[in-house]
TrEMBL record:
Species assigned in the record: Saccharothrix tamanrassetensis
GO molecular function, one term: ATP binding
Biological processes annotated in GO: daunorubicin transport; doxorubicin transport; response to antibiotic
Topology class, membrane: Peripheral membrane protein
Family affiliation: Belongs to the ABC transporter superfamily. Drug exporter-1 (DrugE1) (TC 3.A.1.105) family.
PANTHER family: ABC TRANSPORTER ATP-BINDING PROTEIN (PTHR42711), DOXORUBICIN RESISTANCE ATP-BINDING PROTEIN DRRA (PTHR42711:SF19)
Entry keyword annotation includes Phosphoprotein: no
SMART domains the UniProt entry points to: AAA
Localization: Cell membrane
Protein name (record): ABC-2 type transport system ATP-binding protein
NCBIfam families reported in the protein's UniProt record: drrA (TIGR01188)
Length: 321
């Protein structure tokens, strides 16, 4: 299997700020690579470099076998990009937006109109095709933006936080569309702030921090790196959280995470059901009020917390990158 995306030692600076610091990445054809990282980690800068929108300072990168700098013009006809913010003209109708994009790709008048209608049907926008986009919902705009990225039937697609700001139902709908594209053989590079999105869609996940890839693997491989299991508790009060933290301390195999405001506690443990029973006995002996307790495997959020030092909780995107 050939590699659709190759980045070697990419460096990009904005004055004194280093956005990319020797980033390496390889994405085989027909696979989905998820990019995870804190805000400002370099995800959006990586996408901009790989889609020819930004020139890197050092290193090299190829997409679909073409150099992102030397072959930029040729490459643009082979890739699609849908960003965090919908790149549609809200004064035009949905049909006019797609027709315009198709003509920019020199598909010709008739083929442009045909392609626009095909995509409107595929993304369930036929009923809104002749309405100005300014009347579209957020989910409709995002679907139209993705449709625009697919006009030229790209072999490599870049989605930069494609479902940010969507309600849960719209997000699930977009996931279905993305999975359909991948099933058709499209190579996809996906940046996302939703860990469940990467867990569901990505074949492999690269965790980026400070402009470098600090971990790479499948979701299960990354979770295995964190190791162990988690005792998760919901308690009656902040005082109960403090007491439970002390009582369960001897069972912990790593840092205990306490949320006193939310009355929750997460304790990294090993030992399966036995440690769960032991924990319940210790809490009961101290008359600590437990509303809920459970044992679970590590999640990608645990991976994020372990690798970057904080949870993946930012929701603003990377406007400053």
């Amino acid at each position: 299997m050939a590699d659709a995306i190759v980045a070697e030692g990419l460096v990009k600076r904005y004055g004194s700020v280093v956005a990319l610091d020797g980033l390496d990445l390889v994405v085989p054809e027909g696979t989905v690579m998820g990019l995870l990282g804190p805000n400002g980690a370099g995800k959006t800068t990586t996408v901009r470099v790989l889609t020819t929108l930004l020139e890197h300072d050092k290193g090299r990168a190829t997409v679909a076998g073409l150099d992102v700098v030397a072959d930029a013009k040729q490459l643009r006809s082979k890739i699609g990009l849908s960003g965090q913010y919908s790149a549609v003209d809200e004064n035009l109708t949905g049909f006019e937006n797609l027709d315009m994009v198709a003509r920019l790709y020199h598909l010709g008048k008739q083929r442009s109109r045909e392609r626009a209608r095909e995509l409107l049907e595929r993304f369930d926008l036929v009923d809104a095709a002749d309405r100005p986009v300014k009347g579209y919902s957020g989910g409709m705009r995002r679907r139209l933006d993705l449709a625009g990225a697919l006009v030229a039937k790209p072999s490599v697609l870049f989605l930069d936080e494609p479902t940010t700001g969507l309600d849960p139902r719209s997000r699930l709908g977009m996931w279905d569309v993305i999975e359909e594209l991948v099933a058709g053989g499209t190579t996809l590079l996906l940046t996302t702030q939703y860990l469940e999105e990467a867990d569901r869609l990505a074949d492999k996940i690269a965790v980026i921090d400070h402009g470098r890839v600090i971990a790479l693997g499948t979701a299960d491989e990354l979770k295995a790196q964190v190791g162990g299991e988690r005792l998760e508790l919901s308690l009656g009060s902040a005082q109960d959280v403090a007491k439970a933290r002390e009582v369960l301390g001897p069972l912990a195999i790593g840092e205990i995470v306490a949320d006193e405001r939310g009355h929750r506690l997460t304790v990294p443990v090993s030992g399966g059901a036995e440690v769960l029973v032991d924990g319940i006995r210790r809490l009961d002996a101290e008359a600590i009020k437990v509303l809920d307790i459970g044992l679970r495997r590590p999640t990608l959020d645990d991976v994020f917390l372990t690798l970057t030092g904080h949870a993946a909780e930012e929701k603003q995107g990377e406007r400053g990158e």
